[in-house]
Amino acid sequence: MIRVKVSQLLVSKAGFVVVLKGIEDTRVLHIFIGAAEAQAIAIRLNDVEVPRPLTHDLLKSVIDALGAKLLRVEITDLREGTFYARLILSRDGAEMEIDSRPSDAMALALRCSVPVFVAEKVMDEAGRSDDEDETSPPQAVESGLTAEESRTAKATALIGRLKKDLDKAIEEERYEDAARIRDEIKRLENIH
């Protein structure tokens, strides 16, 4: 596992992106996240005080009240364009793993001041060199596409992945996720 830090939160045409930067590794990992999770991460990164606990603050309080401790967050896999993560908790000397979306895991990690790790295979597949020029993505250079054509191609690929995620969410009766994915698809289609 590669230890990373939440380096930046960016806004792109395709949505919010959290940038994870390797601490001893020179690569960075970009993960698209939803608006609510981006807000939760931004609040913590900017040390904004909120009058009432937000969802991730509540989760931290519940973990503390149950006598557990979040030890670390691990981004473990990348399948069909979707990142997977888990929370590693400890209670009464026993470790527990809980499945999580990376965005929620990172928001919680920031609140609990615990390390975030990325699996080597995930960084190998989706990571990029820290000094890569953002204005000239490697795909554009290799394929002869302009930067705009490359962004359009990436958006089209993202929409395709999101449509698969939408079908899966509906099949698994995760209707809130399905609505969020549907809205993101509509937004992306309106941009391109």
Structural description of this entry:
- This protein is an alpha+beta fold.
- It has two domains: 128 residues, Bifunctional nuclease domain, CATH 3.10.690.10; 54 residues.
- The protein has seven helices and eight strands; from the N terminus they run E-E-E-H-H-E-E-E-H-E-H-E-H-H-H.
- It has an eight-stranded mixed beta sheet.
- The relative contact order is 0.15.
Q: Widest sheet: strand order?
A: 6-5-4-7-1-2-3-8
Mean of all residue-level pLDDT scores: 82
Order of helices and strands: EEEHHEEEHEHEHHH
How much helix is in the residues?
A: 40-55%
Low-confidence stretches: 133-146
Backbone structural class: alpha+beta
As a percent range, the share of strand residues is: 25-35%
Radius of gyration from CA coordinates: 17 Å
State the shape.
globular
Number of domains: 2
Question: What is the level 1 CATH name of the largest domain?
Answer: Alpha Beta
- N→C terminal distance: 37 Å
**Second CATH tier, the architecture of the largest domain:** Roll
**How many strands, what sense, and barrel or not for the largest sheet?**
8 strands, mixed
Q: Can you count the beta strands?
A: 8
Features:
192 residues, alpha+beta, Bifunctional nuclease domain, 2 domains, 8-stranded mixed sheet, 8 strands, 31% strand, globular
Quick summary of this structure?
The protein is of the alpha+beta class.
Q: What is the topology?
A:
Elements (H helix, E strand, L loop, with lengths): L1 E11 L2 E8 L4 E7 L1 H11 L9 H11 L3 E11 L2 E10 L2 E7 L1 H11 L3 E3 L1 H7 L1 E2 L8 H6 L3 H25 L3 H17 L1
Parallel strand pairs: 4-7
Antiparallel strand pairs: 1-2, 1-7, 2-3, 3-8, 4-5, 5-6
